Amino acid sequence: MSNNHPRREKPAPAPEIARRGLLFVLSSPSGAGKTTIARRLLARDPQITMSVSVTTRAPRPGEEAGVDYHFISREKFRAMTERGELLEYAEVFGNLYGTPRAPVEAALASGRDVLFDIDWQGTQQLAEALRDDVVRVFVLPPSSEVLRDRLINRAQDSASVVAKRMAEASREISHWPEYDYVIVNTDIADSDAAIDAILRAERLKRHRRVGLTDFVRNLVKTL
Fold it and tell me: What's the pLDDT at 3?
């Protein structure tokens, strides 16, 4: 018995259309899980790289200079600020944090996405500097009890610091309406899926696809 079904042809590969990169911001109260979400995103998505901030705080156990942060003195931080070399900066728990301007602007121009793990103050400044390029995501814990447990279980801070972070959480959470998207981090797999959906949609936005005009013009010529 012969099979006369027509052979199904493979679809043509999607055309490469140049796009401008985006700045993908994750913010949350300390302990809500944004750092875990960020690390998992970097591990599975080759199109995005982490913005390496400068900071005046000392390295935590396991942190690597130039990978997690650039650890610098307060004097060097002030000099970078005065020369306009930081897109945003803020003081958090007595330490200064900032984002170097040059590598971010180079990434955007070349179509690479940049991931930011920064607080609401830094997000506001970043949006003022590069508003059309910023995508803001706020990560919430499912409850205050879960937040407290996460802070205690990571064993990075003393009891007094944990209490201080819990007290600060309410003020940080009050800024959630300033963000484009809000994720309640109850289940990490669900949070990963939400992040991927947001990124896919934002990458397809017309104003970021800078090569779309030429593509459409050439397409029309062949009709």
Answer: 58
Convert the pLDDT of each residue in 83-140 to its tens digit.
999 999 988 889 999 999 999 999 999 999 999 988 898 899 999 999 999 999 999 9
Please give the C-alpha separations between residue 178 and each of 27, 110, 138, 197, 208, in angstroms, as whole numbers: 11, 28, 9, 20, 21
Angle at 47 between CA 46 and CA 48, to 5 degrees: 95
What is the structure's pLDDT at 164?
Answer: 77
Burial (CB < 10 A; 0-12, 13-18, 19+), residue 150, is: middle
DSSP state of 65: B
Whether residue 194 contacts residue 183, with contact meaning beta carbons closer than 8 Å, is answered with yes
Domain 23-204's class? alpha beta
Rounded Cα gap, residues 168 and 187, in angstroms: 24
| Count of beta carbons in the 10 Å neighbourhood of residue 154 | 13
Residue range 145-151: average pLDDT?
Answer: 78
Which of 193, 171, 174 minimizes the C-alpha distance to 183? Answer: 193
C-beta separation of 191 from 33 below 8 A: yes
pTM: 0.83
Asked whether the CA dihedral 115, 34, 118, 161 is positive or negative, the reply is negative
